[in-house]
Design brief:
Elements (H helix, E strand, L loop, with lengths): L3 H6 L23 H7 L6 H17 L5 H15 L4 E6 L5 H7 L4 E8 L2 H11 L5 E6 L2 H11 L4 E7 L7 H14 E12 L7 H15 L5 H14 L5 H10 L4 E9 L3 E7 L1
Parallel strand pairs: 1-2, 1-4, 2-3, 4-5
Antiparallel strand pairs: 5-7, 6-7
Helix pairs in contact: 4-5, 7-8, 9-10
The structure holds S-adenosylmethionine.
Length: 277
């Protein structure tokens, strides 16, 4: 099999071995009612779908199963030490922004822009960010489509661009493209902060899925069997994590000045990577 990082420097088009299935995002595509009805459940109700998926994700956050407390405490320290000046942040796939809001509370944030596919999540995000004194904008849509639009109007505008647990749904080609575009949105001292799940070096997707789902079965003990099945279906159809090495190669391809891992292997798979413009 071709090494992932080889792809970054090759001019040929790589066809992913397993194509991403964009219809089964974890509470991502609740707005895409038609596709979900066709693929999932003939009696699909968007509001119920949102409620069910949201409840499971909320339960995961409440029990810190994905390590949000540790990760966002590292993020908060980083934001406080790196950004002494007023800070403008773009949050891609912000969800309800509950953890972003906590991490930003004591920073010098002057402007926050959140993008998400889900209108209900954005409604909650507005409330969560309401605690913070700064300009806020919330945009419903697919960040892959909205970023090219932002490049026309907000080039070099954001000091920090955060993408937390939302990039792993994309194919490698899409991740590569979007990181190149994100660089154009950053100010000259700006940082792209990627929080996500990662494969280990030389681990293939199948091995990663087996390992990750095994730890979910073992450690996420308060999930009901129905919730576990929903999650297993979501992870095995929609998660396409890369290795840290692949992201390092992407950072080099786009001439980021520095690449750093702030924290590694939280909950068996999560890392925080910083791409310094
Ligand atoms: C697992 S949640 C993470 C939410 C939050 N960032 C966090 O770390 O807790 C993923 C979020 O990303 C959003 N999302 C996923 N893909 C997206 C895309 N292409 N465009 C916009 N939002 C997306 C989903 O709707 C969902 O709210």
């Amino acid at each position: 099999m071709q090494e992932k990082s080889d792809y970054l420097f090759s001019t040929s088009v790589q066809i992913p071995l397993i194509a991403p299935v964009p219809t089964l995002y974890f509470f991502d595509n609740m707005l895409d009612k038609k596709t979900l009805i066709a693929t999932e459940n003939q009696s699909f109700q968007p509001q119920e779908f949102f409620n069910d998926q949201w409840k499971v994700y909320q339960k995961i956050l409440d029990n810190n199963y994905m390590g949000h407390h540790e990760i966002y405490s590292v993020l908060e320290k980083f934001l406080l030490s790196y950004f002494q000046q007023p800070l403008k942040m773009l949050d891609l796939g912000c969800g309800d922004a509950s953890f972003s809001a906590q991490a930003l509370l004591n920073t010098n944030i002057t402007s926050y822009q959140g993008i998400d596919l889900s209108i209900p999540a954005l409604e909650i995000a507005k409330d969560n960010m309401g605690k913070i004194q700064c300009d806020t904008t919330f945009t419903q849509g697919n960040f892959s489509e909205l970023i090219p639009e932002l490049m026309l109007t907000q080039r070099h505008s954001f000091d920090a661009i955060l993408c937390s647990f939302a990039l792993h749904h994309l194919s490698l080609e899409e991740k590569d493209l979007i990181i190149g575009q994100i660089k154009e949105l950053l100010t000259f001292n700006g940082v792209f902060i990627l929080i996500d799940v990662f494969r280990q070096a030389a681990e293939d997707r199948e091995t990663y899925l087996r390992r990750y789902l095994q730890s979910v079965r073992q450690d996420w003990s308060l999930l009901t069997s129905q919730e576990y099945l929903l999650l297993e279906n979501h992870i095995s159809t929609s998660d396409f994590p890369e290795t840290q090495q692949t992201f390092h190669a992407i950072s080099q391809k786009y001439n980021f000045s520095r690449f750093e891992c702030l924290c590694d292997n939280v909950s068996n798979a999560t890392q925080i990577l910083c791409f310094y413009r």
